[in-house]
Amino acid sequence: MSFFVEVDHIDRVFELPNGGQYIALKNIDLKIRQGEFVSLIGHSGCGKSTLLNILAGLDRPTNGGVVLEGREVTQPGPDRMVVFQNYSLLPWLTVQQNIELAVNKVMKNLPKAERDSIVDHHINLVGLRHAVHKKPKELSGGMKQRVAIARALAIRPKLLLLDEPLGALDALTRGNLQEQLTQICEESQITCVMVTHDVDEALLLSDRIVMMTNGPEAQIGQILDVPFPHPRKRLEVVNHPSYYALRNEIVYFLNQQKRDKKRKSKKVAAIARHGLEKVNLDIGFVPLTDCAPLVVAKEMGFFAKHGLEEVTLSREPSWKAVLEGMASKRLDAAQMVAGMPLAMTLGFGGKAPLPMVTSLVLSRNGNAITLDRDLFDQGVRSLEDFANHIKQTPDITNTLGIVHATSMHNLMLRYWLAAGGINPDQDVTLSVIPPAQMISNLIANNIAGYCAGEPWNSRAVFEGQGVIVATDLDIWAGHPEKVLGVQEEWANQHPRTYLAMVKALLEACEYCDDRRNREEILQLLCKPEYIGSAPEYTRPGFIDPYSYGMDEEPRSLLRFNQFYVDSSNYPQPSESLWILTQLARWGITPFPKNWVEILQRTHRLDVYREAAQQVGLPPSEPHRKPFQLFDEVVFNPDDPISYLNNFAIHNTIRIEEISLDSITTVAA
Amino acid sequence: MATRADISNFPATFLANIPTYFQKNARRLLAPVIALVVALALWQLFAQITQTLPGPIQVVQDTWDPLIINPFYVEGEDKGLGWQTLASLQRVAIGYSLAAVVGILVGVLIGAFPLLYEAVDPMFQVLRTVPPLAWLPIALAIFKNSGPAGIFIIFVTAIWPIVYNTAVGVQQMPQDYKNVAKVLRLSSREYFFDILLPSIVPYMFTGLKLGIGLAWLAIVAAEMLRGDTGIGFFIWNSYNSGAISEVILALIYIGIVGFLLDKLVGFLATLVSSDK
Question: Where residue A423 sits, what CATH number does that domain have?
Answer without folding.
Answer: 3.40.190.10
